Amino acid sequence: MDNSIYLDHAATTPVRKEVIETFDEVLQSTFGNASSIHTCGQEAKRVLEESRQSVAALIGADHEELVFTGGGTESDNLAIRGTAYALRGRGGHIITTAIEHPAVLNCCGALEEEGFEVTYLPVDLDCRVHPEWVAEAIRPDTILVSVMLANNETGAMQPIREIGRIAGEAGVRFHTDAVQAVGKVPVNVNELGVDLLSMSGHKIYGPKGVGGLFVRKGTSLRPIVYGGHHERNLRPGTENVPGIAAFARALELAVGDLPSEREYLETLKEMLAGGILQRIGQVQRNGDTGDYLPNILNMSFTGVDGEALLLNLDLMGIAVSTGSACSSGATEPSHVLTAMGIEPVLAQASLRFSFGRDNTREQMERVLEVLPGIVERLRGVGDARAMR
Length: 388
Ligand code: PLP
Description:
The chain is of the alpha/beta class.
């Protein structure tokens, strides 16, 4: 029996059995091109539009407001670059934050090279941007504000409703990257007051390479890829119908299970965090006040190299992360933790534990059994090196 412990659900999740069933069924029996007008094509079209109805309804949107994409990164790019190109005549200023995922940060960086100006707002010690900072940063030429709903390294939820109100009053488009939040906390586009919202399938026990972008009615966007007339002319290319149907099924299951799962994940998180703080000295929990996702825990272990810790845990069959998956392998300290004011050396001594529905209390106990010894040993190695 595989007794490995997977605590990296913010990087990606295993695919749920029911989701695989939906994927297999559509892949095998609904192979038509959703743009074909014969019966076989129309059957694919029906599955596509039912999936759209379902995903849209689960986030409080209309089916006409949902564009299926190739994942969270593409949704972020379509939202940001699509807005920038559509509104270029009105202004060239974009506001975002220093803690966004690279899908947003590097997209903004590319726009800067094209002449757009980007303001990167700071965050406080709790990994939170203050709405008044957004208000202060808005200028007459600001066309877009993009602030993530929940951070992927710390789980910190951002005050999106307040920021949405500020952006709305200023007549500025508002995008949120909700990739980590959807399926973990209730998400309703109208309550949040967003114009654009990004989602991804593989964070919610669905397939990789499929996601969605909510585009509020009347929000002008330019496509970033050119081709046929698919997805309201915003995302050309023959639709990945099995992937989309599986994404819709995954979201439906995630939203259905949300209340009980949220509480369970919170219990696991607090059990592990409490145990670590009790058994290991010189540990700090990064950003743990206010509104947080139930499934992400970030901790720094003074005097330990985070990557060495990760590799040692991996040898014991425990999978965790040192930051976002996209930046693993890089030696730079996390841009999120440093933006929170955490010293680079402590940022590099940090781990992200992210929990999922299949994790158990016994697994937390197992981690608490092995982690103190590994930390102690690595601290010893560090001390020995310092004495040389
Ligand atoms: N945005 C956030 C906050 C993420 O955590 C991720 C994935 O790690 C992405 C965007 C990118 O999503 P995808 O992997 O579907 O491209």
